[in-house]
Amino acid sequence: MNDASTTARELAGGASLRDVLGQAPAESWPALDRAIRELRPQELGVHVAPAGRWLQWPWNSPLPVLRRSPRSRPESATVLSLCHHDGRIREAALELTPGSPDLLPLLIVRCTDWAAPVRERARALLSEVPAPALAPGAELILLLARREQGRFAVDLLGRVLREGPAAQVEALLTSPDRATRRFAHRIAVDRGLLAPGRLARLAADSGDASLQDLCAEAAVASMRDKDHDDVLGVLLKARNGRVRAAGVTALRRTGRHDEARARLTDRSGVVRACARYVLRQGGTDPLPLYRAMCAGEVTEPGAAAGLGECGDRTDAETLWALVQHPEAAVRVHAVTGLRALDAVTRTGLAPLIEDPSSAVVRAATRALLPHAAGFSREWLSARNAPDRPRAVRVAAQRLLRAAGYSRPTG
Q: How many CB atoms lie within 10 A of CB 32?
């Protein structure tokens, strides 16, 4: 699609709305509305009125009557009238929108018009639009919901989708527009259109945090005994920690508290916290379990972080030993555990700034930022030298800034 100003000029020249806009994205319609208002009278080579001029209407005259006849009233002229700077002309042009699907987006735009007579007439006409025709305008309706007068169309769309066929809602679940997907999923959940197993899969597969929470919570709330394995199996294996956390929390509801043991060492802190909660609800203290996992050969890196999260300062010695562990993931989680215990020291973690693992360097840097003032400028500048690995240079630069030294170079 051309930019809005070009499209407005093409319409003023008599071009077809469908030809210049086609399947335009939602934001194109408010942009077109603004662009038409900005056109100069000499740019309008077409017929906003039968006289072939840009309509000017005396303030105390009756509303203009705009005829539907294709000969005297081409579609492009109706578009220009619908976006006219004079509200009386916009209001009159609304009478030409019924039965014209291509003009529906502009009817939706007019529902948010600043002029109350235009807005109210547009809303009355939009209320008469058949439900199947309204649903495809969901993206534009939700975009305009940000406006002060945008709620009417949203409420109308919600009512249509809640009362209409499930297929209308289903069609919007996979919309490319995020706001539309969220809106449709909320309605689908409210109507109970999605089975618990499907909700769990939607939560696990979605990259949208809002949909993850919505679908995961709905899956757990709606599952029956026969759904437990299906729902929990999907949620507990999800890539996203928020979704796994919902699955772990649901173990309590199903009476499967002991299965939370396997999640004590999850890579996500939220999941680890949920696992500890579920175990405590089942009568098991997770701290001895963490201590046992960290006392010998550590095979689950997350155990080190978990020990710091629920242990006490006496556990710091164990975590300091794990800072030297040969496995980088264990070193990372040991640093996380020390931060949770507030047991970080500058001298203890400074060597990790030059760790061969960039993940360890990043974890150590985050832990050392509150202690940055204790580093000398010379020590940090030496690690910001061009011959140092990138992760080390970035760490030195962050610490230089946190220490309040002059802008780092290198």
A: 27
pLDDT (0 to 100) of residue 298: 82
Q: What is the pLDDT of residue 43?
A: 62
pLDDT at 73: 52
Q: pTM surpassing 0.85?
A: no
What does the longest C-alpha to C-alpha distance in the chain come to?
92
Neighbours of 354 (CB within 10 A): 16
Q: Cα angle vertex 285, ends 279, 291, to 5°?
A: 115
Three-state secondary structure call for residue 157: helix
391 contacts: CB under 8 Å, gap ≥ 6: 358, 361, 362
Q: Look at residue 305 in the predicted model and tell me its pLDDT.
A: 96
For each successive 10 residues of the chain (410 residues), what is the average pLDDT?
Answer: 74 76 83 85 51 44 48 71 88 90 93 94 95 92 93 96 94 94 97 96 95 96 91 95 96 94 95 97 96 89 96 94 95 96 95 96 97 94 94 96 73
DSSP string, 278-326: HHHHTT--HHHHHHHHHHS----THHHHHHHHH--GGGHHHHHHHTT-S
For the four alpha carbons of 16, 17, 18 and 22, in that order, the dihedral sign comes to: positive
- 149 contacts 111 by C-beta, under 8 angstroms: yes
3-state helix, strand and coil shares in percent for the chain, rounded to the nearest 5: 65, 0, 35
- pLDDT score recorded for residue 51: 38
pLDDT of amino acid 42:
59
Q: How many CB atoms lie within 10 A of CB 157?
A: 25
What is the signed CA dihedral for 352, 354, 357, 362, rounded to 10 degrees? 60
Q: Give the three-state DSSP class for 381.
A: helix
CA angle 133/108/161 to nearest 5° reads: 45
Six-digit token string for 302: 């997350």
Measured torsion, CA atoms of residues 115, 118, 121, 124, in degrees rounded to the nearest 10: -70
Give the separation between CA 400 and CA 394, rounded to whole angstroms.
Answer: 10
Q: How far is residue 409's CA from residue 391's CA, in Å, rounded to a whole number?
A: 15
Residues 6+ apart with CB under 8 A from 31: 4
pLDDT of residue 100: 87
